[in-house]
Amino acid sequence: MLKSEHLRVQVRSGQLRPRWLTPESHADRERAELALALIRGHLGKRRGQLDAAIMLQSSATTDFRLIRGLTHVALAGATFESRVAFDPWTARRDAFERAAARPSLDLIGRAEVLTETAEQLGTDADTLDRGLYADLPSEMTLVDFEETTPDAVIAHYNRALAQSVLLRATEVTVRLRDPSTKRLRRIVSALKFHQLLFAFHRDGSDAVFRVDGPLSVLERSTRYGGELASFLPSLLHAERWTLEAHLKWSQRGRPVTFVLDDTSEVKASGPDRAMWSVPEEAVLLDALRAAAPGWTIGPAEELVDIDGLFALVPDLRCLEVATGRVAWIDVVWSWRKAWFTKHAQQLVAHGPRRLILAVHGAAATVPREGPGALCVPFRGVPAPTKLIAALEQRAEPVA
Fold first, then answer.
1. Which of 24, 55, 50 is nearest to 37 (CA)?
2. What is the pTM of this model?
3. Domain range for residue 50?
4. How far apart are CA 377 and CA 369, in angstroms?
């Protein structure tokens, strides 16, 4: 994220509009390349020297916030280390104790203190003098920099700018337009992982989440704001979405609105793990449809609340055409076993009866009966006949 002094935004008519960068802009690419060149040119030098160069370069332009912001995000791939063979904190302590034991300290006395301390630490006085404060950020040495491109820096800058704006949110509304089951599950998982407070409802085929912002939480708002900002990359992978945030941008100013969607300049990075699937899922769906012609089986869209403890989106929704009874099937493949182990007892005790969990593993390790969800163990691929029997047993009419 960006520091407050790096933010470039405009507020007009109650709308906050960040000043995004675009890879197509020659000026934006030049500034991104300048930020990278500044960093490359200071490999092996102290952080203080790099900071001074950034200040000097940014002072020479009218848009100093941009240069400082670009170098800030580009430094995410940098490594700074203390390049001394001794612990600076220990060296300072020993040197100060020796100095305090003297009745007075002139230049000769200072040299003697450094020499005595250096001998104890196995180094020389000059090296000790240069490295006494080597553990301070400004004295750290830039030892490595992960090479990147101007386009990548621009994309990182835009994401960081959007995340920084969300730190001022009082409420955020996220709308997913006609999301797939996998996408809906991924968003719910991300919200839960970041411990965000949210409410969910359907608006036609859209899924709508109302998320409390950091400035609506009385305690630990800084940590909560960081979690909300960290949620944004998961949303960026969605296909069609809109985010609307109500912001408290100033202490005395009126509330302002910030809108972001899938057409904005803020783009996702890295692989989209939410849409990863295995062939067995399609095979299972085809087998269930063939074996149960009296049922309409397809991807589920409901968000199932487990007694207020957590929420999940099942894989399949199964509707018995003749009676209107409904059940859900959620397949717990081997890579979801850690999640199931954590929540198994809650699901069996508090989950809805119409929820059927096909769990990969030995029958002895899977809880079977309880007032809540029903667990059906399997090896390889779930057996359609067992799942259909479970549907017949647990399906319930829709209220």
1. 50
2. 0.71
3. 4-81+142-156
4. 12
